[in-house]
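Collaboration report, partner site 2.

Our partner group contributed sequences for two proteins of shared interest, and the home lab folded both. The records are reproduced in the order in which they were received, starting with the first partner submission.
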Amino acid sequence: MQKGIKMTIKLLGIFLLFNITVFARTYIFVDLSKGMTQNEFQEIKTLSAINKINTLYKNKEKVYLYALFQHRPYRARPFIYFQDTINEEKYTKAKNIHENFFKKIEKYTKIPPQKYLDANIIFLVDRSKKMHNDLEEVKQILRDFVARKTPRAKISIVTFDGTDFMPNKKRSHILMDSVRNKRALLYAIDSIKPSLYNCYLGSGLEKAKMLFQTKSKRPNFVVLFSNAQKIDDYPYAKKVVQSFKNSSREIKVVPLSDANLSLLQEFSTSGLLEDKNNISTTDDEIILQLHKFLQKKKLTRNDKLIIYSTMENQDYLSNFSRTKNIDNPNFYTKIKQQNEKNGITFHFHGAKVYVRIVGETKNVNIDQLHTFWRLFFKDAKANLLYFSGQPLTKEKLE
């Protein structure tokens, strides 16, 4: 009996030791959605540089590099450091992974992050009678987007309007279905004209749902343009948008002129896009980015998460640059309630977090940012050890 207990204790000790040494992971999360300076790029490269001797990451730790590009997330395969030194074969393999990662992201320090866009996007355009003064602006935004898309990106265009007497399927029209050809897309955009009918969004959403590229690895979402103050098929549209949310399909909403913002917010899965001339194919909300990043991660207190980002949330209801006092605890409580309502929760399980603020922070004071994120990480059971706009070095991580 005693031998059995001793053996159990011994096995438990081995397991705990194994957990500490083998399963410790470092995630370096690079948010490139707002671009990055050359100096910041070099800093990350130096921070994660691979050395045969005296490496930063020891004890068989796995190191993951992630970058959130403007067109799609990219994850490097983990490279593993073995104690103080690694053999030539493993060193070469790890070095190649590291170099390939930085080759892939280096161009984003040289070109504007919005210059090229690669995604499967469904543009859902309200052409009801109230859109008469806004439709030309929408068409120009679509033309600019088509000009910046990559050859592989597919674009669909759906318009909607309608009357009470129309069958539901005739209240919306598919102008383009997963088209790559720019000339065809521009021709379709030019053909969009305002109607004399009302705003029947539900039919448009239903057709947009049919066009989703379910097997594609590229970002796949709907961008809705509307200035609606009233949605004539509101109950049906709400039912359809709920099916989007249930299947994790994304809708971005661009409000125009005097739109009812709180109404349109109900039909977005990721907030309203106030900068209609700068449509992103990734999420501008760092909170949503972290939520998606952590969904498949089971962090432990042995893990590190290093974040390079502006940390300035862009969601309509929690846009840091439009909020004067983001360091107010009441503001954090509002954001937390909003997240919970949308099924967004966080648990870092005691993981160590290091935040390096990158980019310009003209609109938000770093001290206010720090106060908000300190509340956020504490509430999410994370151990926030660094939050600064100053360069992050290996010494600060050890």
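Second partner submission, folded after the first:
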Amino acid sequence: MKKEKGFTLIELLVVLAICIVCIVLIFVVVGYVKNIVKLCHCDFDSPFKAEVIRAVGIVIPPVGVVAGYCKINDKKTKKEINIYYLDPNDINSIKGKKL
């Protein structure tokens, strides 16, 4: 029998499957590490939405992988910032009137 050169279809599919698994694994590891890095850069100030989601992502890795690629906004709104700010020129804030 003549020895054929090249790969069979099964061998090519196995190589393709291994490549796909490696690419997915790289994306998973990068997402999980990004989640840990983003947790380290959180401000840990109220509201704690991003901190909680990212901390849960460390304990439950699939959540961490997704959270690593997501941008979670938990910045204070202008209204929330003004609650803590007393304007010395505003007589109502000096008298202690609720904002």
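Feedback sent to the partner group on the second submission included the following. The mean pLDDT is 82. The helical segments are 9-40, 49-59, 61-69, 78-83, 91-94.
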